[in-house]
Structures are given as structure tokens and as C-alpha cells.
Amino acid sequence: MRVVLAEDLFLLREGLSRLLGAHGFEIVAAVDDGPSLLRALIEHRPDVAVVDVRMPPTFTDEGLQAALAARRRVPGLPVLVLSQYVEQLYARELLADGTGAVGYLLKDRVFDADQFVDAVRRVAAGGTAMDPEVIAKLLARGGSREPLGRLSPRELEVLALMAEGRSNAAIAQRLVITERAVTKHTSNIFTKLDLPLSDDDNRRVLAVLAYLDR
């Protein structure tokens, strides 16, 4: 699996490169600034990009801006943001096309190598991987709006875990309920959010977007 890695801190960049390499990933480019990241993403079109947010030259949002620009050029390009900060506007924009293949993890909360590698693989496969703290900050504006107001407390719990990128089996384990019950709750969520049946999995992403945008 081919990876473009963007991190301005040399030791962290090298550490992530070694970690991913040890788990069978091929690092096709490891860069330390926004312009280099955009060039690498367009040139290599990797299976997944692991991107820091604040990079040279201004240390504001170069990493996310480059990732968004690359996804406009290469629709659906898988991007996992690994950052110390939550940039709410750009995090929402990253999710906005509804195609999945995105993740946002906080560096301070990635304590387990297997957890991190699993998130990289999940995003590369077209799924989502959202840190619970990122979700909490995206929801900081508060205020439950329709149609989310139609959901029961249990359905909101299921949707919150969906937003973290968890599978039905993982949700069932977390909530100590059966997987069949999770499937029923998920179906109810789609119905209440006015998401009709389709031939793809985008309803799950659209449900998460509705949750994050409340």
C-alpha cells in the first residue's frame, strides 16, 4: 500500500515512516511543507495520505489545504489527518463530498501503533476514522436540529460511534448489544435522516455528516 506522508518534524516523520514501513506500507514520499505535499499527492496518487495540519511556510493550515486541493484534482483521494489541532472549517470541508476515505486523529490520542495502522488501512479502503475528541469539537456549536431531533438516545449513540468509523460489529461490542440490534438502529437512523436506499455505502457517510453538522 503506497503512502504519502506529510510532517514537518523530522523525528516524527522518520518515526511514522519506520512504523508504517514495518507494517507493510511503502512510503513513496515523505515531505515537510504544504507545496511539496500537493506536488507529491498529484504526482504519486497514493493509496492513502497521512497529513499534518500546520506545516511550513506559515504553520497554519497548509497540510489540510494541500489535501483538499489534491482531493479536488483526484476525487476520493484517501486522506488521514494526524494533528495536534482540530481545524473545524477544513475538517468539515474534508468530509463534505460524502465519498468517505477520510480520517482525523489527534496525535496526543494515538497511543497504540495497531490502532493507528488500522485507521490508515480503514481510510485507504474508503472508510472513515474520526477521533472522538475531534467529533466533540466539531459539535461544539451545539444545538440539535431537525432531522437529528427525530433520533432516539440510543440511535444517537450508534451514530456517534459510526462517526468514529466503527463497524456494526465494533458498535455492538462497545454498546453491549447484538449486531442485529445495531443493524436495526442503523436502518432507523437512515430512515429518520431521509437517506433512501442506494447501491453504495454513502448513506453511512451522509448520516455522519448530518451528525457533525448539527
Nutshell version of this structure?
With 214 residues, the chain is an alpha/beta fold. It has helices spanning 10-22, 34-44, 62-73, 88-95, 113-124, 132-138, 153-163, 168-175, 179-192, 202-212, and strands at 2-6, 26-31, 48-51, 79-83, 102-106, 128-130.
Could you walk me through the main structural features you see in this protein, from its secondary elements to its overall organization?
- This protein has 214 residues and is α/β, with parallel strands linked by helices.
- It is 50% helix and 13% strand.
- It has a six-stranded parallel sheet with strand order 2-1-3-4-5-6, sandwiched between helices.
- Helix 1 links the parallel strand 1 and strand 2 (26-31).
- Helix 7 (153-163) packs across helix 10.
- The chain is globular and about 45 Å long.
- The mean pLDDT is 83.
Descriptive key words:
about 210 residues; about 50% helix; alpha/beta; 6 strands; globular
Strand content: 5-15%
**Widest beta sheet: strand line-up:** 2-1-3-4-5-6
Instruction: Count the DSSP helices.
Output: 10
Number of strands: 6
Helix content: 40-55%
Shape call: globular
Distance between the termini: 35 Å
Structural class: alpha/beta
Order of helices and strands: EHEHEHEHEHEHHHHH
Q: Return residue spans where pLDDT drops below 50 for at least 5 consecutive residues.
A: none
Secondary structure layout:
Blueprint: E1 2-6, H1 10-22, E2 26-31, H2 34-44, E3 48-51, H3 62-73, E4 79-83, H4 88-95, E5 102-106, H5 113-124, E6 128-130, H6 132-138, H7 153-163, H8 168-175, H9 179-192, H10 202-212
Parallel strand pairs: 1-2, 1-3, 3-4, 4-5, 5-6
